[in-house]
């Protein structure tokens, strides 16, 4: 019976067929231990010389790392095995004998591993991270789809950017200039006026010459927008989304979290209660009390975010930032116009901002004023139209997929969160 390693527990005591690859092997003379993988998981196959035809045992002797094989065997429960099961091998068919594999159990440098990323993703750790990535994506879609959101796909090629073109990738669009998008938000605002609650889910690009552990050149963003939504309601949706993601991963990825050595306790704290909220003012005071020379009106860097969030065991909202350091479209606080009705959600354990959101300006005259202040020209006149024809209070946010994965997995760098990372000075493979 053909099955997968993931479903092997359904066939205890039965002979099954696994189609996969040899991850590693070891031998103790008359017994060979094959570490098998098939994309759904890893399992050990035990080959006893006295219990298989001589040709089968000889085939196992010849196997090289990453050779593709079909393996038949009896499924046995084994508490010592990571998956809880082992395979008593009865037959092995060689599909392809692999060349000498460049990635071995020894330590390799990061550049070497990234040069061989197309092979590195086969390793247990990288496979687990990519599986968690897929489950996080599933959880995000499930939550948004289940709460009345409609997916809308904004353009990747745009004529300009209301946030400036300094960090955008330029290309030619026939006889016009065009740029790869760094956000679909403005288009999502238009879609929200048609569909109520919407979200985009796609790649974004930043030509930012940064080498920090939090930055990628190409990354994925989820950007929900909601008509008739306030700043408070916006934060409630964000909190619900993050808690849903974490709950789903804790339930569905136990083996993967174990494979990457992720302690689940900090993640369990995330779903234990509501997220704390502090104002930008209070965050500045906290930093100053901790010895940081941090003036009011500056934006937080990674060390400041780490300092702020280490006082909490779950993500924390920092809200009401100074208007001058935030995007032009954020709604001013009516009680204090120098700050905006917006918030950043900072992840614990030093991972910093994973979500940025705000209530958007819905007043036409105020938005025109912001356009004049930033000298936007005519490229986004259509955005002004949204305030001319049925404008309503509305809000939204953006969540960075790779930063969220890095936090949930407890990774040191976002380069492991995406199958083929695009970094400063790295476009291969």
TrEMBL record:
Top-level taxon: Bacteria
A Gene Ontology term for the protein's cellular component: cytoplasm
Reaction equations catalysed: tRNA(Asn) + L-asparagine + ATP = L-asparaginyl-tRNA(Asn) + AMP + diphosphate + H(+)
GO terms for MF: asparagine-tRNA ligase activity; ATP binding; catalytic activity, acting on a protein; nucleic acid binding; transferase activity
Matches recorded under InterPro entries: Aa-tRNA-synt_II, aa-tRNA-synth_II, aa-tRNA-synth_II/BPL/LPL, Asn-tRNA-ligase, Asp/Asn-tRNA-synth_IIb, NA-bd_OB-fold, NA-bd_OB_tRNA
Localization annotation: Cytoplasm
Enzyme class: ligase
Pfam families: tRNA-synt_2, tRNA_anti-codon
Alphabetical keyword list: Aminoacyl-tRNA synthetase, ATP-binding, Cytoplasm, Ligase, Nucleotide-binding, Protein biosynthesis
GO BP term, example: asparaginyl-tRNA aminoacylation
PROSITE patterns given in the database record: AA_TRNA_LIGASE_II (PS50862)
EC number: 6.1.1.22
Ranges where the Aminoacyl-transfer RNA synthetases class-II family profile domain occurs: 130-429
NCBIfam families reported for this sequence: asnS (TIGR00457), PRK03932.1 (NF003037), PRK05159.1 (NF003483)
Subunit organization: Homodimer.
Protein family (similarity comment): Belongs to the class-II aminoacyl-tRNA synthetase family.
Protein name: Asparagine--tRNA ligase
Lineage: Bacteria, Bacillati, Bacillota, Bacilli, Bacillales
Gene name of the record: asnS
């Amino acid at each position: 019976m053909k099955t997968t390693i993931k479903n092997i527990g359904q066939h205890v005591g039965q002979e099954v067929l696994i189609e996969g690859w040899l991850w590693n092997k070891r031998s103790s003379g008359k017994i060979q231990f094959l570490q098998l993988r098939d994309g759904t998981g890893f399992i050990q196959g035990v080959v006893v010389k006295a219990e298989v035809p001589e040709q089968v045992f000889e085939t196992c002797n010849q196997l090289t790392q990453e050779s593709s094989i079909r393996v038949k065997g009896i499924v046995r429960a084994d508490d010592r095995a990571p998956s809880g099961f082992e395979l008593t091998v009865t037959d092995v068919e060689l599909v392809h004998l692999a060349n000498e594999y460049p990635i071995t159990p020894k330590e390799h440098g990061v550049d070497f591993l990234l040069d061989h990323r197309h092979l590195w993703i086969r390793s247990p750790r990288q496979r687990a991270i990519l599986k968690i990535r897929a489950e996080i994506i599933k959880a995000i879609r499930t939550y948004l789809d289940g709460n009345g959101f409609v997916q809308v796909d904004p353009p990747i090629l745009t004529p300009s950017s209301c946030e400036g073109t300094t960090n955008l990738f330029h290309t030619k669009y026939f006889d016009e200039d065009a740029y790869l998008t760094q956000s679909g938000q403005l288009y999502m605002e238009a879609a929200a006026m048609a569909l109520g609650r919407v979200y985009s889910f796609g790649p974004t690009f930043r030509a930012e010459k940064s080498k920090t552990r939090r930055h990628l050149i190409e990354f994925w963003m989820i950007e929900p927008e909601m008509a008739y939504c306030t700043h408070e309601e916006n934060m409630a949706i964000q909190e619900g989304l993050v808690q849903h993601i974490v709950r789903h991963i804790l339930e569905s990825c136990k083996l993967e979290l174990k494979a990457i050595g992720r302690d689940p306790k900090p993640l369990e704290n995330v779903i234990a209660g509501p997220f704390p909220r502090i104002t930008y003012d209070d965050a500045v005071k906290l930093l100053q009390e901790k010895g940081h020379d941090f003036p009011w009106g500056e934006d937080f860097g990674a060390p400041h975010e780490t300092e702020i969030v280490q006082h909490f065991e779950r993500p924390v909202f920092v809200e009401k930032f100074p208007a001058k350091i935030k995007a032009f479209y954020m709604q001013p606080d009516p009680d204090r116009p120098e700050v905006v009705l917006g918030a950043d959600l900072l992840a614990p354990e030093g991972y910093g901002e994973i979500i940025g959101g705000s209530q958007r300006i819905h007043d036409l005259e105020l938005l025109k004023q912001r356009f004049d202040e930033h000298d936007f020209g005519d490229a986004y006149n259509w955005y002004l139209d949204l305030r001319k024809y049925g404008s309503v209070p509305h809000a939204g946010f953006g969540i960075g997929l790779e930063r969220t994965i890095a936090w949930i997995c407890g990774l040191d760098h976002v380069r492991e969160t995406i199958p083929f990372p695009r970094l400063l000075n790295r476009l291969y493979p």
